[in-house]
Every structure is written in structure tokens, then in C-alpha cells.
Amino acid sequence: MRTVQAPTTPQTTWSRPAERIMAAINRDPLTAPHALRNDALLAVAVAIVAAAFALFVDDGRRPDALGWALLLVSHVPLVWRRRRPVLVLVAVITCVFPYHFLDYPHTAATQAAYVALYTVAVTGRPLRTVLVGIGVIALAVGVLHTISAQEALGLLKASGWVVAVLFCGVDVRVYRQYVASIVERAERAERTREEEARRRVAEERLRIARDLHDLLAHSITLIGVQTSVAAHVLAADPERLDRETVAKALDDIAETCRSARGELRTTLEVLREHGPPDVRGPLPGLDGLSDLAEAARLAGARVEQTVRVAQAPPAVGAAAYRIVQEALTNAVRHAGPEPAVHVALDEREGALHLSVRDDGTGPAPGGTPGFGLVGMRERARSVGGTLDAGPRTGGGFEVTAVLPLATTGERTG
């Protein structure tokens, strides 16, 4: 397969060196890769420039062997300028002052000193930079004053270059700190987004687990009761088989299976990859309570239902639906044969008050607790509500919940 290379324009050709220069400026000098090698190359380059100034600029006597030795040795400490900037500056000055004292070309020896001063400014605090700058200028003027007052005055006039180099170093240091703070904020924002994504995934897994528990527990309980009815009819009197009753029980089982299959498909739709992550099927709501009551009646319960709620937010309606579904499932499972169950929902003081009570025997003492009550409490808390469940004083079991109708919580399935 042939690949087509993008055309190289003058703009992209110029942008590559500019990107490298900006990367070098933004990089922390203390953590930059290949620092020792780069500083050695820099020392060699500055030494070559200094040698050119010594040969072609006539502002002092031509260097002899001692002058060349002092000039070149003053550039050697620059190799370690990042690790010990102050010591490097002291070492450079130690070599440069005798060089100036012997009146060799003065311009040639300033390059190494400027590099050392810049390194001190770019790697240290501003206070240290100011103190070092004042100390260097004062020391240089004092030493040259012992040689010649005119040279000292000239150096004092030229000290603006020292201040400019120090100011440039401080400015680059502040710019690097600004860039580092931007990068840190971006990384923190990225970590926050990742944590939020993980939290949403965990919440979604918990929502799906609750939905599957409620759906399967409810459907399997009803199917078990309806199957027991059909088995009882078949075993009671085989010779006088009540085909109509058996057929009705099997139809009820088939209807429960169809309903469970449809709701299971809706619940698991969020796990499919062909849609956005937040796509979900329609949430069950208060309009589905009559179907829950009818399914419980088919399982043998005598259900009375009272609903005095005009409208509820989708999250609140879904939470109420699931709570009633789990409460009816527990009543059919634990309350004994043909329990009387009363479901009541009404709106008072800006909240939905829910009650499901039965007259059965309740769960057997000492049994293994399941996840039904835990799931109901989690659903109530997900919309800012509360839930209580326990045996009634006069017998039976009761589940009560208060769900605020003004909740702004996220949807619950």
C-alpha cells in the first residue's frame, strides 16, 4: 500500500525549529534530558566565540599562553552550570578577574560570565538573583578600581548588561513556572475527568445490578408461584384435569416471561456499543404500578392499590416503581398463601409518601438476608429520600418510603 507524504510547506519547515526552541525554553533546566552533554556543547560553543573575540576585537593586549589558559579554563565550569550554578559562577569569576587584571581582551571573557549569571537567575529564587547580581557588580567595580578608576567607571556603566542578563533569567524562570502551573492544572483536570468517569461507571454498574435483582427476583418469584399452581392442579385430580386452569396458569407464566424479557432487554441496552453511553430505555414509572399489582394478583396475592399522585419526576417515579416491585415480590414470597397487600402512594408536603403493607407472617427468623431491602434503601437515597421496613405491630410486614418530588438527582433505573 502506497502512502502519500504530506507536502512540506515553508511554514511547517520554520515551525519545527520554533517548536524545538519553545520546548527548550519551557523545559525545567534541572530535569531536562541530556543536561550534561548539552552544557558541554554549550561550553565549547561559548569558548569558540570567546576565542574569536580575543583574536579579532582589540580592547586589550593580545593573549599570551597564560591569557589563553585563563580564557579557556573559565569556560570549563559551564559544563556543570545546572547542578551548582552559584559555584560555577564563582569558578568563572575566579578565572575571569585575573584575565581582566592582566588587561587581556575584556570582551572575550564576558560571555562565560553572562552564561553563569543567567543560569543563577533562571534556577534560583529572585532574592538570590538580586544578591548575586549586586555582589558581582560590587566585586568587579572594586577590583577594577584598584587597577584603574577609568576601567571601574566603564564597568559600572556597562553593568546594565549584567542587570539585563539577570532580568532575562528571572523572566524565563517566571514563564516556566507559569507554564508548569498550566500543565499541572490540565493534568489535575484530566485526573478529575477520569475519576468522574470511573464514578459514573461504578454508579451505572450498581444501577444495572439493582435493576437485574429487582427484575429477576420479581419475575422468578411469580413464575415459581404460577408453576406451583399448575403443578397443584395437575397433581390434585389427574382424572378430572382442569384444562382451563392449567392453560391459564401457563399463559400467566408466558406473559411474565415476555414482560421480564422486554424489561431485561431495556435494562441491558446501556451495555451495547452501538449507541452513546448515556442512552437508556424508558424508565419505569408510576403508570406501571397497576401491572405490578396485577402480576401479584396472578401469583395469589390480594392487592389493593391507592395512588393519589398526579405526576412525579422520572427518577422518583422509577424509584417508587422499583420499591413497590421489590415489596410485592417479598410479600408473595414470604407472607404466606394469598396475603392481603395494600399499596398506597400519595403526595404530601412536596414529597411522595409510599407504603406497602401486608398481613402475612413475614420472613422466617434466622434466614439469610438478601439484597432486596438494601436495594430499596439505595433507591430511596438515590433521589434524596428515606425508607423504613420492618414487621408491623398488628402482624405482617410494612415498607414505607418518603421520596422528595423536587429532587434533581440523576436518573435511577
Written overview of the protein:
The structure is a single chain. By secondary structure, the protein is an alpha+beta fold. 62% of the residues lie in helices and 9% in strands. It contains twelve helices and five strands. Strands 1-2-3-5-4 form a five-stranded mixed sheet, with helices on one face. A hairpin with a 2-residue loop joins strand 2 and strand 3 (351-358). Helix 3 (65-73) packs antiparallel against helix 4 and helix 5 packs parallel to helix 8. The protein is rod-shaped and about 130 Å long. The two termini are 50 Å apart. Mean pLDDT is 76; it is low at 273-280 and 408-413.
Key phrases:
single chain; 413 residues; alpha+beta; five-stranded mixed β-sheet; 5 strands; rod-shaped; disordered C terminus
Number of helices: 12
User: In angstroms, what separates the terminal alpha carbons?
Assistant: 50 Å
Helix content: 55-70%
Number of strands: 5
* Parts with pLDDT < 50 across at least 5 consecutive residues: 273-280, 408-413
Q: Structural class per helix/strand content?
A: alpha+beta
User: Which overall shape is indicated by the principal axes computed on the Cα atoms?
Assistant: rod-shaped
For the largest beta-sheet, the strand count, sense and barrel status come to: 5 strands, mixed
Mean pLDDT figure: 76
Widest sheet, order of strands:
1-2-3-5-4
